[in-house]
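# step 3/5: fold
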Amino acid sequence: MDQDCIKLTTFIRGHLTKVMATGGALANLYDVGQIPASVLLRGANGTGLRQHFHSGSMPGSSDDVLTVAETVAIGRRPEIERELDQRVTKLGSGLLTLRQARLLSEEIDPVALRDGADEATKLTIYFSRQDVVFQVPAFEVICEVLHRRGMAGATALSGIDGTIGGLVQRQRSYSRNGAAPMMVIAIGSGAHLGLIIPELGGLLRHPVMTLEQIRICKQDGRLLSLPETRPGTDAHGRPLWQKLAVYACESAHPEGQALHRTMVRRLHDAGISGTTLRGRWGFHAEHVPHGGRHVPAITIVIDAPERISTAFTIIDELTGTRGLVTSETVTAVRAG
């Protein structure tokens, strides 16, 4: 199946138990028709997108728990947005972003993808942590295939709640064997990804994937392009913001600490908010897929175009020799 969809990414501030009780089941939070995939992720480090929550807490403070909810919704955008207008206030304090994507599921055939100038493709694969391939965890096999096929990077993230293919996936008491949802985010050439997508889909029982156009700004210290900083609005008058994502290993230690911690602190000092999602497995550039002490991490910054240039200056300085930096345009919807 190959069809259009909308990706809803929600940044919810508050204690995890409260978030789970008031809307952690994403299929209930977003009653917008069929939802083939949703993942609830806990932020590992960050300032909670401070300016959007009116919170002055410092990175890592006890009241600064951020939960990131990603939902893939099928349906016509006007219908989904009307439903969102009625339900977004359930978030309390939060920021929601919308982005058009392409959904692949069930039987997946090769896809013709063409990246424009300064563009690349982001592939997100949704599955269960219980999925294995010849007794090897599926996320390790997926990352190995993506690395062997020359992708720029991939990161496996483990969720705590969600739905995959209409089935509820929920971590139980932080058990390693729970049926928790997972997602692998891969960045690379659209032409290459389009050819290997059937191979990746064949590894899973219920494959669910999305494709989005993005921009690779930096790769292992090389500046490839700058983020787009043109302000604007969507068809409904909602602001178009920029999302920066930095993929790097936790073992990178500029200024004596992990790269993502240094980055979040420097962004906070500049009045810009960011948050980090800690991966379970992955790679970037020529580095082989890995986890453990060198677990990959994704640091995310979402802001108006006029502030993104300041954020990118900080990120550019800290990724002088390592890391993968991408940018994309999202529709921003505030709540609270």
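# step 4/5: annotate
The helical segments are 16-23, 26-29, 50-53, 77-87, 138-148, 190-201, 259-269, 305-318.
# step 5/5: archive (pending)
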